[in-house]
Amino acid sequence: MESEKRGPSRRGFLTGGLAMGGAAMAAGAAQAGEKAILELPPWTTQLGDGVDARPYGTPSQFEAHVRRRNVAWLTADPVSSVNFTPLHELDGIITPNGLCFERHHSGIAEVDPAEWRLMIHGLVEKPLVFTLEDLKRFPRVNRIHFLECAANSGMEWRGAQLNGCQFTHGMIHNVMYTGVPLKALLDEAGLKPNAKWLLPEGGDAAAMTRSVPLFKALDDCLIAFKMNGEALRPEQGYPARLVVPGWEGNMWVKWIRRIEVGDQPWHHREETSKYTDLMANGQARRFTWEMDVKSVITNPSPQAPIVHGPGPLVVTGVAWSGRGTVREVHVTTDGGNNWHQARIDGPSLDRSMHRFYYEFDWDGKPLLLQSRAVDSEGMVQPTKDRLREVRGVNSIYHNNGIQTWHVRENGEAENVEVS
Amino acid sequence: MESEKRGPSRRGFLTGGLAMGGAAMAAGAAQAGEKAILELPPWTTQLGDGVDARPYGTPSQFEAHVRRRNVAWLTADPVSSVNFTPLHELDGIITPNGLCFERHHSGIAEVDPAEWRLMIHGLVEKPLVFTLEDLKRFPRVNRIHFLECAANSGMEWRGAQLNGCQFTHGMIHNVMYTGVPLKALLDEAGLKPNAKWLLPEGGDAAAMTRSVPLFKALDDCLIAFKMNGEALRPEQGYPARLVVPGWEGNMWVKWIRRIEVGDQPWHHREETSKYTDLMANGQARRFTWEMDVKSVITNPSPQAPIVHGPGPLVVTGVAWSGRGTVREVHVTTDGGNNWHQARIDGPSLDRSMHRFYYEFDWDGKPLLLQSRAVDSEGMVQPTKDRLREVRGVNSIYHNNGIQTWHVRENGEAENVEVS
User: Fold this and answer.
1) How far B393 CA sits from the closest chain A CA (Å)?
2) Quick one: pLDDT at residue B160?
3) How many Cα atoms sit within 13 Å of A146 on the Cβ side?
4) Which class does domain A294-416 fall in?
5) Closest residue of A to B69, CA-based?
6) Are the C-beta atoms of residues B212 and B251 closer than 8 Å to each other?
7) Residue A224 bridge partners (DSSP)
């Protein structure tokens, strides 16, 4: 890795500064500055809405383009489909609840919390049924975790397909969950000695089930009922979902209604025909639960071109690992010939999204932008080609390969592959 | 402080458990459990909305009661008024953007970000005007901070007035900000040697101004453009606001349009006739910027009564300090005769909200619930009476006194004072 001072030099920045804010006060652009400051805009001359107008707030009318997007051709039907988090419009590490990607198999269940129940049964001493109020009588914890679909970046196995990080990497969100450790509920039911596996089941019409090993459930799984402070959103499993930190999103059963305790996995559909990784030789990797270390540059990117000329440029993105924290992120502007240390900013939390920045003086020439994350276990994000060598291209799951954006001189970017 | 095991004993919890979840499977209540599990509810038998239905998500229809509330009689007009965060409905430490309390002086400015400008002028080498895109070319940081209005709990100076923590303590929120250190912008403009004070001005029709000492601006102030990942909400200063960590909310100028650099404070209205603390002797404390260590129990509370009988009870609340982190929170159930150590859970961050819990077996008898926070500087939250002794009752600002909820045998709670 090249050794260098991080960010643009002071000298470079001042020069850039003249092309930036300073320019507005220079002769040519003086009108713009004067207009903004001297001619008062309507929001300074008129009263706005009062505090009774919006009991539950919504984004500015000027942010209507910031939204989840689906891809119509990707699935046969919108009720068993996905939409994507607009990563290129976000910053920091918290995904606001209204923009968390959705994946459902039978549409959004609209569960009445008064009617909701969670049953724990099977290899337990005492089968139990909990109401939501029952859950809230157990000690709670708060954890910020990413949730990534195993199929995130799945279209990219066969080459650069989707033009924008919302679509290539937007099946992820990162929120603060409040919930009860699953261990507390299992302790209450009393596990029988031969208990080894759990089968959580969703309350929607898909009745999603996944086999979860008991060691994970006892370690850090939660039954969560809040996200980012407020009740779970309907599309995220309201009133309660399973949280399985660091593991693939499909296991985080939403609208959870039942947990069966058994002594072996159930081999249901979502862990046999789906969510297994078909290799080139026709064999399938299975129980690939953990999400590997991964990162993506969110700005600039195809949906977020550079809108200014050469000079100071902030490159930013997100990184995460299902195995712990992210220790380092490296950024290259030339397709991997030279790597620079990025600056990680904001809380570095266990199995949570990390925000990184790389600031430099852009000379206006084309860029081949990539980011590469290293996690707390020393795992290094691989190239897509290296992944293909090892796993072939049959699967759509667990693609954590390095993403490349080609940025043109005009600031526009596209999804490309470099070899 | 009494020494004791935290939370209910295992034995106590199992007994409680039978009155909780376990009961549903016992003979008397078997129908409820069977109905919930065997008779499939409509959300399990019908498809829900698809992924194209809600590009920007909203809360469940069953959460319509979770909203900001204003108090009509508190102010003459809703455009110069306040509404309150429903603290009793939240958990964890993040306030979702739609529920952050609002305080405006001329209504919500609806600023077009393309027209927005920030001017820095006065005692600088080079006056500058920044566009929003200019701002985004400076290195950014991410910080989770509480914002508390200096008048939060202000009605309580003269006795228990408002019945619910939303109203007594709801002029606070806690979000992750993404923004540019103000120091970077001031460095770009170049401070003259006699620069000592700043006057940020808001772009709404109130043109809010406050004098901010330069040492604070250079230390940790931000010009923020994101909250909880997405663009600031209009009512929180879209597209950019000042962030003044730990200091009273009135200084966090919204819709910021101008920062004048000077050599002394301006003594404008909001720092003379308002936001100064009139003492009993007629003199006013002024420049009381820092928000003192404070806490409140959010559940149970008047708007969130206990809905179950005796047995395991989770008491929870929030604590914060403008001087650093919260080191400890103590909870009493008997009006201060015995104090118990609460469990702080979730990230403990500088000048950020902290979440605490105190779990115990409620015997069903009346409670006098209080919480008392201690910050990282060793400051201890005082009683309201102690505050009144020192400051009198003329002011409405900076009341960080201990709050008391009287919980009746039926679980209902009310705002009371104990001497």
Assistant:
1) 27
2) 86
3) 36
4) mainly beta
5) A55
6) yes
7) A179, A241
pTM comes to: 0.93
| Helical H segments across A105-148, by residue range | 132-135
pLDDT, tens digit (0-9, with 9 covering 90-100), for A183-211: 999 999 999 999 999 999 999 999 999 99
DSSP assignments along A180-246, one per residue: EEHHHHHHHH-B-TT--EEEEEESSTT--B--EEHHHHHHT-EEEEEETTEEPPGGGTTT-EEE-TT
Nearest neighbour of A134 by CB, restricted to B21, B178, B345: B21
What is the residue type of B184?
Answer: A
Q: How does strand A311-320 pair with strand A354-362?
A: antiparallel
Alpha-carbon distance of B243 to B262, in angstroms, equals 19
Query: Is A355 within 8 Å of B142 when comparing Cβ atoms?
Result: yes
Residue A333 amino acid letter: T
User: What was the pLDDT predicted at A161?
Assistant: 87
Q: What is residue A269's predicted lDDT score, i.e. its pLDDT?
A: 93
Residue B64 CB partners (closer than 8 Å, separation 6+): none
Chain B nearest-CA distance from A381, in A, is 24
Backbone angles phi, psi at A409, to 5 degrees: -60, -30
Query: Which range is most confident: A275-279, B4-8, B19-23, B303-307?
Result: B303-307
Residue of A nearest to B112 (CA): A62
A350: closest CA of chain B, how far (Å): 11
Please give the DSSP secondary-structure letter assigned to residue A111: -
C-beta of residue B145 within 8 angstroms of C-beta of residue B249: no
* Peptide linkage before A300 cis (omega within 30 of 0): yes
Give the residue, B20 or B172, on which the prediction is more confident.
Answer: B172
Q: B285 is written with which tokens?
A: 């404390």
User: What pLDDT is attached to residue B188?
Assistant: 97
Domain locations along chain A = 87-285, 294-416
For residue B276, what are the contacts with CB-CB under 8 A and spacing of at least 6?
B284, B285, B286, B288, B395, B397
- Label residue B99 exposed, middle or buried (CB < 10 Å: 0-12, 13-18, 19+): buried
Asked if A117 and A129 count as a contact pair (C-beta separation under 8 A), the reply is yes
Chains A, B: CB pairs < 8 Å: 426
Point out the least confidently predicted range of A316-330, B36-50, B62-76, B403-417: B36-50
> Which residues are paired to B358 by β-bridges?
B315
pLDDT at A190: 98
**B18 — pLDDT class (breaks 50, 70, 90):** very low
Cβ separation of A92 and B22 shorter than 8 Å?
A: no
Supply the pLDDT for residue A39: 79
Cβ distance B57 to A98 less than 8 Å, yes or no, reads: yes
CA angle A29, B241, A94 (to 5 degrees): 115
> What is the residue whose two structure tokens read 């078997």?
B30
Of A207, A174, A161, A211, nearest in space to A396 by CA: A161
| A31 or B305, greater pLDDT | B305
CA atoms lying within 13 Å on the CB side of residue B74: 24
Burial (CB count <10 Å: 0-12, 13-18, 19+), residue A393? middle
Q: Spell out the alpha helix ranges (H) of A139-195.
A: 165-169, 182-189
Domain B87-285 -> CATH class: alpha beta
Please tell me the distance from the alpha carbon of residue A360 to that of residue A8, in angstroms, as a whole number.
5
Taking phi first (over 0 means left), then psi (-120 to 50 degrees means alpha), and beta for anything else, what does residue B159 get?
left
Q: Are A261 and A123 in contact (CB under 8 A)?
A: yes
Chain B contact set for A239 (CB, 8 A): 60, 62
Q: Which of A9, A43, A112 to mutate to test the interface with B (most CBs of B within 10 A)?
A: A43
Q: Please, which pLDDT band fits residue A419 given cuts at 50, 70 and 90?
A: confident
Residues of chain A positioned with their CB less than 8 A from the CB of B93: 142, 176, 229
